[in-house]
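Feature request disguised as a bug report, sorry. It would help if multi-protein outputs had a clear separator. Right now it looks like this:
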Amino acid sequence: MTTWLKAKPAAAYAGDVDVKTLYAAVKAGDLKAARIGAGRNLLFCTEWIDAWLAASATQGGDLASLKTEEASRAANAEASYPTRVGARNGDARRLSHAS
């Protein structure tokens, strides 16, 4: 019998990862999920989570490349920092870390 989990329990099942990590993996095509309705409601099959984790496993000497990947992701995230749409006039404003 297949076990289906909503996002928060799926994140806990995956080792207490952030729910956003699951959504990012689905968006990247690395993790399969079943979409329920029109919103962000997703169901995750435990077998799919196990496969995603197994595919993400590193080899013994891969920690250096893992740190390089994390640094690259952080740089890309900074470069594509999100914009916010103004509540009143609908214009997009780039958010910055500096207040």
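(second protein starts here, but nothing in the output says so)
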Amino acid sequence: MKVISNSISIDGKWMSVKPHHKTIVDVAKDNGIGIPAPCYLQGRKHGCCNGCVILIADEEKYACTIKPRNGLEIVFNTPDLKELRKERFRLYKEPLKVAKN
């Protein structure tokens, strides 16, 4: 593993962290990786939708709540995480439908 100075890895791809990157979501977006994070992008409480679930050292974390740190290795795109996101978004959308009525 070769760590580039001031960089993180998402699914094995190393990318530079810029000063304007506040979270993992920001780094991913600037590198063409779309981590779903509607709560973050819509100005809601970060982490409330659970859509940006990632793994760091085999622990579930939320990309919209994690500041990028040099050498951080993130797992994002696995079948299990995709299924988990799908289920969490299903649950997240239900209260929104009710609130609109």
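Even a blank line would do. Unrelated, but nice: Helices lie at 24-30, 38-41, 79-100.
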